[in-house]
Amino acid sequence: MSRLENKVVMITGAARGQGRSHALHMAAEGADIIALDICADIASNPNHLATDSDLAETGRLVEAAGRRVITAKVDVRDRSELAAALGSAVAEFGGLDVIVANAGISAFGPTVPVQGFVDAFDVDFVGVVNTVSVGLPHLKPGASIVVTGSIAALASQVTRSDGLGLQGPGAAGYGLAKSMLCDYTKSLALVLGEQRIRVNAVHPTNVDTDMLHIDSIYRAFRPDLENPTRSDAEVGFTFIHAIPVPYVDPADISHAVVYLASDESRYVTGQQLFVDAGAAVKAGM
């Protein structure tokens, strides 16, 4: 398993969920990992974010896979903080080959304050821009940038009010951010093509992580129930997919990320890859 042998990969939002999964799958393919995460809650976001111990566990698991790892607490909204952490890690590892801009929050829910719009947009779009911007000076020809989008960027379900919508200012900020990532990655792919640096986005559907399993999302998918459970919500989750599953596994996204980071995809750039159990085709997109 050496598809990423001796590559250095930066991953934001690496403490748990999709980010941790990416770190472990990429380490298993031979990559050394720079794992970054805020490791703190954001007040407007209704669910708890990762902790110091979560990030430490990601580091431990990467080391157990036999690869080098550097972990750091970083808020992707702070470009100077991000640049300092990355610069130190790159100096230690000797380079940077892959950027995985994965950090994100949802801030879904009708009770989320207006600040939720600001925070969701700043993390989910500005945070990606910051991550790419501080990483670019370290990249060489053959490098790869992979951005985590969302099927919500390509569908209207984050703003709908017909029983499948995810309402509130945070949802609006999330939807705007994820939709803007489509044009951002396409434009950046054109700009960086001459340098042989590739840029692609992966758009997951619902993924079985802590970010999905919160009351506000359960209620959005089962508005007919006062206190829907996980099993209740899974009925609604399944409804949006062509393949009858409620959600995909983080590993399903990681497989796509590994491919886009590897030399197997050396001529793949500017793409919007759906890992969505057919949600886009079911929605007629």
From TrEMBL:
The keyword NAD applies. Belongs to the short-chain dehydrogenases/reductases (SDR) family. InterPro entries: NAD(P)-bd_dom_sf (IPR036291), SDR_fam (IPR002347), SDR_subfam_1 (IPR023985). The keyword Secreted does not apply. PANTHER family: BENZIL REDUCTASE, CHAIN DEHYDROGENASE, PUTATIVE (AFU_ORTHOLOGUE AFUA_4G08710)-RELATED. It comes from [Mycobacterium] burgundiense. NCBIfam families: SDR_subfam_1 (TIGR03971). This is Mycofactocin-coupled SDR family oxidoreductase. Keywords: NAD, Oxidoreductase.
